[in-house]
Amino acid sequence: MADKCIIGDAYGDLIIVYERHDTMKAVKVCENSVLQNRFGVFKHSDWIGKPFGSIIFSNRGGFIYLLAPTPELWTLVLSHRTRILYIADIRFVIMYLEVVLGCLVFESRTGSGSITTSFARAPTGHVYTFGFHEQRAASAREDFERTGISTLVTVGVQDIQGEGFPDQFSGLADSVFLDLPQPWLAVPSA
């Protein structure tokens, strides 16, 4: 995710476009691209060099806001491949697990990656997240790449509830988050 205050001088930044109170979306800023909605046409080229929080007007006088892709906003715009936790619950989990700088966090069930994104920005040392569905794991990897946190997150595919965490990680975790139907089955491995 972008830690910058200004949308880059080059294309490729991921930003959150706030259209109205119930409509936001993640958009990759691309050369010669436009965002078209009921408020008009918005040229991506007009966004370059603008500070996050800027209001951009369309050809018809409509407007949008350009926002930084924070974990809180990312949770609201990500593709919900599964049910997710929202930021109030996520912050409680991070506090309860005592996630601090340098922690290795292990998470079962990557899902949509909402809490993974927040763990990665907590700040941790690294997040190892395991999903049991290869296609969802691949989608999560793509999202982590798009949001700029792929160096902080490793996505594995393994049924943690049935098989436990991989033996190579034994004793390494500082915090473990089990988002499973029967989490007690994974406690011995954790």
TrEMBL record:
<dbReference type="GO" id="GO:0031515">
    <property type="term" value="C:tRNA (m1A) methyltransferase complex"/>
</dbReference>
<dbReference type="InterPro" id="IPR049470">
    <property type="entry name" value="TRM61_C"/>
</dbReference>
<keyword id="KW-0949">S-adenosyl-L-methionine</keyword>
<keyword id="KW-0539">Nucleus</keyword>
<dbReference type="GO" id="GO:0160107">
    <property type="term" value="F:tRNA (adenine(58)-N1)-methyltransferase activity"/>
</dbReference>
<keyword id="KW-0489">Methyltransferase</keyword>
<dbReference type="GO" id="GO:0005634">
    <property type="term" value="C:nucleus"/>
</dbReference>
<protein>
    <recommendedName>
        <fullName>tRNA (adenine(58)-N(1))-methyltransferase</fullName>
        <ecNumber>2.1.1.220</ecNumber>
    </recommendedName>
</protein>
<feature type="domain" description="tRNA (adenine(58)-N(1))-methyltransferase catalytic subunit TRM61 C-terminal">
    <location>
        <begin position="62"/>
        <end position="190"/>
    </location>
</feature>
<dbReference type="Pfam" id="PF08704">
    <property type="entry name" value="GCD14"/>
</dbReference>
<keyword id="KW-0808">Transferase</keyword>
<dbReference type="GO" id="GO:0030488">
    <property type="term" value="P:tRNA methylation"/>
</dbReference>
<dbReference type="InterPro" id="IPR014816">
    <property type="entry name" value="tRNA_MeTrfase_Gcd14"/>
</dbReference>
<feature type="binding site">
    <location>
        <position position="179"/>
    </location>
    <ligand>
        <name>S-adenosyl-L-methionine</name>
    </ligand>
</feature>
<dbReference type="InterPro" id="IPR029063">
    <property type="entry name" value="SAM-dependent_MTases_sf"/>
</dbReference>
<feature type="binding site">
    <location>
        <position position="159"/>
    </location>
    <ligand>
        <name>S-adenosyl-L-methionine</name>
    </ligand>
</feature>
<keyword id="KW-0819">tRNA processing</keyword>
